[in-house]
Amino acid sequence: MIALLGRLAPAEGYTASALDEVRFMRANRAVPRTPVLYEPCIVIVCQGRKRGYLGERSFIYDAQQYLVLSVPLPFESETEASDAEPLLALKIDIDLAVAAELALALGPAAPAHNAPVSMCSTAMDDVLGDAVLRLLEALLCPVEAQVLGRGILREILYRVLTGEQGGAVRAALAQHSQFGKIGKALRRIHAGFSGELDVPTLAHEAGMSVAAFHANFKAVTQTSPIQYLKSTRLHKARLLMVQEGLSASSASNRVGYESSSQFSREFKRFFGRSPVQEAAVMKTILSQAPSEPPAHVRAHSLSGRHEFIMLHAS
Q: Where is the signal peptide (predicted)?
């Protein structure tokens, strides 16, 4: 896997693959603990180590353990890597439609002893490892990627759904469960974060009282609905400043802030730097990206270089 990822991810940062659902991650140096934002996904690290922090809990994902996020989630992450042993990993977005189809085919999940969790690291077994290896081999060839790739992705998702923490993903898809209702509310926030969203409306849509919604929301995300919405807006604004070159004022307006001064205060409190300083740091990082990546990377150079921030933000 390390040898294949070394070929598929020759440049630091994120590298697009032949499949939209899969991206490769490479870091040649350690990245300190920083706020990040992940959509529902599976992260498989083949070399190096990442550690995620959610509330009072921490999660290690490395060559022995993979990470699963069953709902969109802001948390904090740090990376252990070096030039001698760079972080090499792949990130697979969870296709919720495929996950729902597989969950339906699997039938009702067995009653869980513990409540489902939004984020977990789970031991990698040989069966899942074999599927990941076959995916990497297929992604070396564009034709094999298109013919075989999504079938292998479906198999990987099946292995996760039937694994130790698969119940969390299945619970997030179950509309009648409290966890599933919160999962739906999180997707609603991500779809409409720039608009007028308030807790009573979200609670009503989830079929809960405001108090019950608050309690269940915090159990899933380790934060309040307002703080979750705020962190989502700040992450999206940072990405806009890097991807589209927006000013802090324009980015704040785009993500739903009415006051640019309030945005600047909250941004600095959250990221530890002002929007201008953060944008400057990210531009410096981007300017250090290789100017002539391999051809299969060059085809995605615009999005790939802009998404280099996501190695520090994801």
A: none
Q: What angle do CA 95, 104, 137 make, to 5 degrees?
A: 40
3-state class (DSSP) for residue 189 = helix
Q: Are residues 103 and 236 in the same domain?
A: no
Boundary residue ending a domain (220, 248, 277): 220
- Nearest-angstrom CA–CA distance, 189 and 186: 5
Structure tokens at 248: 């802090």
243 lies in the same domain as 310 = yes
Contact between residue 314 and residue 34 where contact means Cβ atoms under 8 Å apart: no
* Contact residues for 256 (Cβ-Cβ < 8 A; gap 6+): 193, 194, 195, 233
Instruction: Report residue 306 as tokens.
Output: 């802009």
Q: Is the pTM of this model over 0.70?
A: yes
Do 209 and 84 reside in the same domain of the chain? no
- 287 Cβ neighbours under 8 A, 6+ residues apart: none
Q: What are phi and psi of 84, to 5 degrees?
A: -70, -40
pLDDT averaged over 10-residue windows placed end to end, the chain, 314 residues: 94 90 93 89 95 91 90 92 94 90 78 70 92 97 95 95 81 78 90 90 92 92 93 92 90 93 94 89 57 39 39 42
Task: Identify the three-state secondary structure at position 52.
Answer: strand
CA atoms within 13 A on the CB side of 75: 27
